[in-house]
Design brief:
The protein has 183 residues and is an alpha+beta fold. The chain folds into two domains: 13-148; 152-183, no CATH class. The protein is built from three helices and six strands. The chain has helices at 106-114, 121-145, 167-172; strands at residues 13-23, 29-39, 43-45, 49-51, 56-66, 72-81. Strands 1-2-5-6 form a four-stranded antiparallel beta sheet, with helices on one face. It is globular, with a radius of gyration of 20 Å. The two termini are 24 Å apart. 19% of the residues are buried.
Amino acid sequence: MPLSEPVARSPIHIREIRCEGFRRDDGLFDIDGRIVDSKTYPFANRFRGTVEAGDPVHDMWLRMTLNERLEVVAAEAVTDKHPYPGCGDITPEYRALIGLRIGPGWSREVRGAFAGIRGCTHITKLLDNMAVAALQTIVPLLKSEQSGENRRPPQIDGCHVLRSDGAVVREYYPRWYRSGAAD
């Protein structure tokens, strides 16, 4: 079901976020994320001159390489377009993702590591989307490959519909269902 019909309006700002997941030939996984912001009108930028309508204000990339345990084993960030001199200088700091594990507490750890002047607001926000892409890339693949293992699916209790006492878990993951609150 689409959103309701909007009132008459004009576009001003566009933010595009794209995340892609890959299985590497060495058995690891790459999650590539990109965030692009653009305006629908030209504007003056002291550093770049005129930024034309549709040209990126921000164009930033991040790649995380993960193992099967969802641990970051490599990280690389790049800033291609930015509004201020020095924006891209922070990208090497994202190597601090190495050793972190996507799971409970991920967002808290990321915010702690890259809050304020220790990171780039845009790249740090991109990491939440990339974590979801990593789960969508890796967990179903490993689930099918390791169907005989006794691992609790990490998505259980990750959102309201996948709560351990809910109808979806009861139907799709009966082994991990726990009765409790009403469905």
